[in-house]
Amino acid sequence: MLNPFVLFSAVILFAFTPLPTPHPMMRGAVPPTASATTKAAEKADAAALAKAKSVYTVDCAMCHGDNGNGKTDLAKDMQLTLGDWTDPKTLAATTDKEMFDAIRNGKGKMPAEGAARATDDEVQGLIAYIRGMSKEQPPAPTANPTN
């Protein structure tokens, strides 16, 4: 008689034992959409760009100019000939690695941007910001054909 009682108790016990809660994705939760992921990436990109612009304004603009054309009074006073980053051809042959090394270690009279002042990610953002300067300029005027 003990055997049927134990079997019945076990069945009742298992019937009322809560099952583990499934993972939210298994309960019909909607995964993040591509647009939500894109918006988060855009927000992160915008924050990184804002940080890069801030670093550029504080550490680079005094010689290279606010728009990157390299024509500043300080550059003239120091007798520096700086590239015009508003012209896409200026950096066309320069790799990101070369730019990173020049920023991080300095070049000529340009001081190094030490790790205490900017992280590697911030220097990478600064490179992207500098490369973007040529894209912000209006296209060069085209010659008017003579009639």
Summed up:
The protein contains six helices and no strands. The protein has helices at 2-16, 34-59, 61-64, 73-77, 96-105, 120-132.
Describe the protein in words:
- This protein has a domain at 52-137: Cytochrome c-like domain (Cytochrome Bc1 Complex, Chain D, domain 2, Orthogonal Bundle).
- 50% of the residues lie in helices and 0% in strands.
- The protein is built from six helices and no strands.
- It has helices at residues 2-16, 34-59, 61-64, 73-77, 96-105, 120-132.
- The N and C termini lie far apart (114 Å).
- Mean pLDDT is 77; it is low at 23-27.
Largest sheet: none
Oligomer: single chain
Radius of gyration: 30 Å
Q: Helical segment tally?
A: 6
- Structural class determined from secondary elements: mainly alpha
Low-pLDDT parts are 23-27
Write the layout of secondary structure elements.
Layout: H1 2-16, H2 34-59, H3 61-64, H4 73-77, H5 96-105, H6 120-132
State the main characteristics.
147 residues, mainly alpha, Cytochrome Bc1 Complex, Chain D, domain 2, 6 helices
